[in-house]
Design a protein that fits this description.
It contains 19 helices and twelve strands. By secondary structure, it is mainly alpha-helical. It is globular and about 60 Å long.
Length: about 550
Amino acid sequence: MKKLIIWLLLVMVASQYSCKKFLDITPIDKLTGNNYYQSANDIESNLTDMYGKLFDKYVQTNTAGATGEFRSGEVIPSTGPNGGTQRVFRYDAGLLGGHTRTVAFSGTTSGFQAIPGSPVNDRSNLLNAIAFSYNGYPNYYNFVTLTSWTAYYQVIQSANILISKLTGGIPSLTADQTARYIAEAKFIRCYCYFTMVRLYGDVVYYTAAYQKDPLARTDMVSVVKQCIADLKPAKNDLPVAITDPSLRGVRASRGAVIGLLMNMDMWNAGFDPANKTAYYTETAALGQELMDSQAFRLLPLGQWTTVTKGRSEESLFELFTTVNYSSNQSQVFSLAPFGESFIHFPYRLPEYNFRSSPCVFTSDYMKKLYPDTQDDRLIIWLDDPYNQNAETFQLKKFAGNTFIDASQPNNTAIPDNTFLIMRYADAILLRAEALAELGQTQPAIDVLNVVRARANAVRYPGGANDSNLKDAIFYERAKELMGEGTHYFDLVRTKRIMNKTYTDNPLTSDKFSRGGWTWPIDQSALNNNPSMTLNAYWRGTGIE
């Protein structure tokens, strides 16, 4: 079935440029050394190419699910008609010695996401999941793409060159335009570095426009510190929010920078304990700045489909998609979305193919998240949440914008959502977490209740000596951001990943210290770089 999709051509920074003008920009592959970096249009084209590469990388696999949700074990293949099929495949002899293994996959129709029937939070099982993405084997998740960081470095290199050109001066740009473009390029660069840190740990860090000499990997705490130092002074060169409703959230704003800075601060707080108070203090201050700006808002939960559709007043940064334009990237619908694995008829059509959800969240996890049933998220986002029955359980959070393709047989239904990267609710809850860690209990509770109020949940009562507040904020993030690719990283940065209380697939302290929470790095990273090393935890597995 031919599916329609395009990521929004990410458009003009300067307010004087119209969307039509942006669409008329000369494509980046048509530019030459004689006419490149000469005008605002050239810079726009360069930035568009960088955002486009990020989008292409994101949709190579189910990024939010694979990296942010599935490894902790609360998502399992269903056992309904469309789920839990046991299949035996022979692994590539060159990769794993040619042995066989039975793995449960979610769905019997090509295009469904695959979730290994056994936990993927240890070396052998995650290796198996990656192995099933190699040529000649079911290409459901395409996990293997997550081992390659090449695309991120291509974007970083583009950002480095652009910043160098802008710093050197482009006569056709005003000083304000130059500063704004530099800030946006730095946001993209730091977003790439932070994404890689959360996937691989230590990474190669450089900002030179034309890096020639091979470099060793830099300690990830240092990388994040350098990103914070690089990005923070530039945030005020961007507008607080993009006010054009066609561009909101898809281009970097001060709000997006603040959201990224808060996430980086909270990551380092978990891995740089000697300086955690400074990180918490900075996160709390940034969160207050963002909330005081009133440039973003939490939409009523009854308008949630506006958020998932994209470009809402709640979006700090997203990778926008829409079915209104054609594209050959069919994986955007068949592979990349998180929500399709958790819904069935009437949100998936035809009915006879989609009478059950391919995957479910465990009932124990749902009961842990929602001990109190007075929460509109429980009603609006979920069907039969406490039951693992695939014919009744649904995560409707991403099902509201179902697109019916009447041109296809059986009027096939396809969810049409954006890829949410950072939302206002994420920043609010990070501020609450930082305040709680600083011992500012009542302010933390007040901030937490901002998100709970939107969900029509019971206000968190707490008290001056509340010992459960930190856990309450952790679980609030798990509820609010479910399916948006944050949960596993929250487990890692808070070290809860080593505690069975918080995850079905805990890591031992030894596995954690050796990088068991990371992804392996493709061996191509070793090419022509004698200074490069791979992740110790994954060495000798056949992937690294």
